[in-house]
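We treat protein structure as text, and this decision shapes the records that our systems exchange. Such a record has a labelled line for the sequence and another for the backbone structure tokens. The record that follows is passed on verbatim for readers who wish to inspect the format:
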Amino acid sequence: MRQATTTMTFDTNGQGLTEITRPIAAWAGEQGMEAGLLTLFCRHTSASLLIQENAAPEVKTDILDYFARIAPEDARAYAHDDEGPDDMPAHLRAILTGVNLSIPLIGGRLALGTWQGIYLFEHRRAAHRRQIAIHIAGA
């Protein structure tokens, strides 16, 4: 069994979904493994990771609208608002979506479905630089 790790940095444009599939898949392919498991970890509390459809742009719009309803930016609703009205909702959205993903490597490729993409989900309004720690183990 072999292992490899790296950290990738992604710049977001503020609240929204940034597809990061290509650089992740390229790095995994460079490791020369045929089978294994890729693990991604978002090193932040106000951003998260998810696997979602990458074909229809309306999906991203609907996801953002849904999270705006279930974790609204209303400073009166939260005790923690040190960094503004989007602070605590960003933490709640990260809790609901998660900060880690595991993706099998089969035949030297990520075993994503036809319409699946890996997304960095920025929950803050402002642009941020986000780090994703990556680990792959396999043969």
Remarks:
- The longest strand covers residues 2-11.
- Residues 57-70 form the longest helix (14 residues).
- The helical segments are 21-30, 57-70, 87-97.
